[in-house]
Amino acid sequence: MVDFKDLKVWQKAHQLTLRTYRATSGFPKDELYGLTSQHRRATASVGANIAEGCGRRSDAEMCRFLQIARGSASEAEYHLLLARDLRLLSEEDFRTLTGQADELQRMLTALMQKVRSSKSG
After folding, report:
1. Average pLDDT of the chain?
2. pLDDT on residue 96
3. Which pLDDT belongs to residue 118?
4. Hey, how many other C-beta atoms are within 10 angstroms of the C-beta on 90?
């Protein structure tokens, strides 16, 4: 497998995590151990699971960690909805971050399919 830092999907996940940290820095202090922490952990988990999958050096394990990463991206998407509905996140930030999370989920799905097809081909 390749170095995770060379994967475009990891780069996108890292950018989403950085933007999430910036966007959540304005959340109320009483959310520090609630939504702020949960959302940050979910987005950081996407990149971390991609990295861990690459480190395992097997296609089956890579797919498993990509699935976990995709689950974390879905979790992050829910946190975005919640933050918007609680009026903690601007509509502009919501649209931008949701678009990035959607793109990331599609990329993860495509990479899983590619890894699975290379295993069977």
Report:
1. 94
2. 96
3. 82
4. 13
Burial 2-26 (b: 16+ CB within 10 A, else e): eebeebebbebbbebbeebeebbee
What are the structure tokens assigned to 4, written together?
A: 């995770």
Confidence (pLDDT) at 86: 96
CA distance 108 to 22: 23
Any idea how long the chain is? 121
Cβ atoms within 10 Å, residue 66: 26
- Average pLDDT value for residue range 68-94: 96
- In the three-class reduction of DSSP (H, G, I as helix; E, B as strand; rest coil), residue 39 is classed as helix
Give SS3 for 28.
Answer: coil
| Tokens encoding 22 | 């910036």
Q: Which two three-digit tokens encode residue 86?
A: 């609680």
Tell me which residue of 29, 56, 53, 33 sits closest to 111, measured CA to CA: 53
| The predicted structure's pLDDT at residue 120 | 61
Check: CB of residue 113 under 8 Å from CB of residue 28: no
By the 8 A CB rule, do 36 and 24 touch? Answer: yes
